[in-house]
Amino acid sequence: MAEFEFEHLIESIPDYPKPGVVFKDITPLLADPDGFAATIKNLADPYRNAGVTKVVGAEARGFMVGAPVARELHAGFVPARKPGKLPREVASEEYALEYGTDSLQVHVDAFGPGDKVLIVDDLVATGGTMVAMVKLIQKSGAELVGIACLMELEFFNPRDILAGVTDKELHSLVKVS
């Protein structure tokens, strides 16, 4: 597949969900068959020979890109959910928000020693959810093989934040400065 121009299928919505925020709407990209296929292929490509056994994505938009990347890599998919959404014993990791904290949970048996895990999300901004997923992987004894996202909001410096918890490089398809 040739190089794909993702930006024309990502809509900027000013003042959503609150004044001053410019929301990046990826639904036109996901609705476009060529755009969706290029997204999944380009997120998966750097990890095709990494032996990925599991892909983890945070709810809910991380599910939209993480699950197809897992399928593309012939790996399992692990949903990282908000508290109270998973029915069995969970591992939890809290992360900071602009005003307060939240947490992500995975089943305690979702991955462990011997697993090679790739984190996939739609967007990274302040890095909180990705840091939480990195820590969940580290606590499990699994190996983190990479971090990939469709869009990186560079002005939040997520690479610096992620460097505080892992030496894995962030792979992003679209950089917003």
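The record above closes out task 2.4. Task 2.5 opens with a second protein, given below.
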Amino acid sequence: MDDRILQIAKRIKTLRIEKGYSSHEFFAWEHEIPRVQYWRMEKGTNFTIRTLLRILDAHNISLEDFFNDLNDGNS
């Protein structure tokens, strides 16, 4: 698997945990993202740009900040 995808998946999971959600299911439910689709994104197996943007909106983080943090190694 592409390491970049795994970095994105890890960053998504880290954001969820930092926001206080221990469960990916509750986060997905609360932000109206299909649970299985969100789980797959955290595992790095299913990415759509639309869902990534919904996740970033839920965290109030810009696309630029999301990827800058990846480049800085802060994920």
